[in-house]
Structures are given as structure tokens and as C-alpha cells.
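Supplementary Note 3. Input sequence used for the single-chain structure prediction.
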Amino acid sequence: MTNRILLQSSIKHTAGIRDIAISPDGQILAFASLDSTIRLWDINNNTYLQEYNEHTGPVNSIAFSPDGDVLISGSYDYSIRFWGVKSGKLLKTLRNKLPPIRVAISPDGKTFIASSESSIGVRRFSDGALLHEIDSLHMTDIDFSPNSELIAISSGRYERVLTGAPHFYWAKVYSDCFVRLCSTEDGKALNTLDRNGAKVECVAFSPNGTVLAVALSGKVICFWSLHDK
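The predicted structure, written as C-alpha cells, is reproduced below.
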């Protein structure tokens, strides 16, 4: 296979890109930017489609609905917004008590997640109603299982401490490092993989939902079997 650039274009955001998402049919690429806008790009024709510019703060995260008709976004303006992909119209705005830093839609399209620095709100997709909240201090990533029944939440933080007397030096100390599996239905924790000593950076379910891949700081990837979970 030869390496080639499939898409190289100037998206012309005035600040850095925070997140990207590809539509389920693979036709549209969406960019979320720190300049408070979202731009859509036609992948096949390499052309600009439209811009969503109703946010008043940096856009942290975006996600397409499973049918590709709706794009949701979370911003530092404390809002979650629903956009019509074809119409380009703002369909709905929800207010969050904290700025949502990550949004994700379940594969069955029935629920979505809006996570902040300290909690994850599980909401009904049809009307945005808050179903329940999950504590998620120091959350780094989230993912829905393929059957939409589980939510994987990774967490971790580090602090710099002065150590090594008498020859002092700064060292990283990791804490609150774990992956938690929670029920989408009620938010209850079902299982926890403790990884203290290494920050958990991100998580992803396998397509059949039997394995959870966990990426740790320090160039390590773990695979968690879910057969018996």
C-alpha cells in the first residue's frame, strides 16, 4: 500500500481544532474548533459544506447520530447543541451545569452522554432529558459498548512532587487511575479495573463488545476481556 494524502484542505478555522467526527456513511467530516464554530466538509469532493456558529465559547466535542441526520456539540459556553446535518439549522439547545468537555451518542441512538470535569450526564436523545448522572472526577475518556448497554469511563491524573532527598527532583505521581464499567440504564458501576501507577488515557470497545482496549501513559495498551463482566 502506498501512502497518499486523501484530504488536504484549509478548513480556515481561526483557532485550533479541538475534535473531529466522521458521519456514519463516511461522506462528511466535521471539525470542532476553539474559535466557537463547527465546520462540515464533503470528503469525496473535498469541498466545504457549511458552518455552525451559534456557540459563544470554544467547542470541545462533537458526535454524529447513528443515522447521520443530527450532530451534537458540547462547548465551554455551558451548552449542548443539536444541529440538522442536511438543513444546517440549530434544532435544540440544552444547558449544562458545567461546560461539557465530551459528548457521545449510544449506537442505538436512544441516549447520549455529556461529560464535564466532575460528572457524566446520561440523557435521552429524543428530548435531552437528564436520566441520571455518574461521578467522574478526572475523567479522560468515555465509550459506549456496541449494544449500548455499557459505558466505559477512564480516569486519571498526575501531580508533580518534589522527591529524592538529598538530591531533590520533580517526579510525576499518578492517582485515581482506573477504568469503570457502568450501566447505561441506571449509571451503576458494574466493574472497575484499577490501574494506579499509570494514567488511563483512552478506552475503546471492540466491535463485538467482548474486549475493551485501554491505553495507558507509558506506551502501554491493555486488553480487558468482558466475557464474564
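The chain has two domains: 13-136, 140-229. The mean pLDDT is 85.
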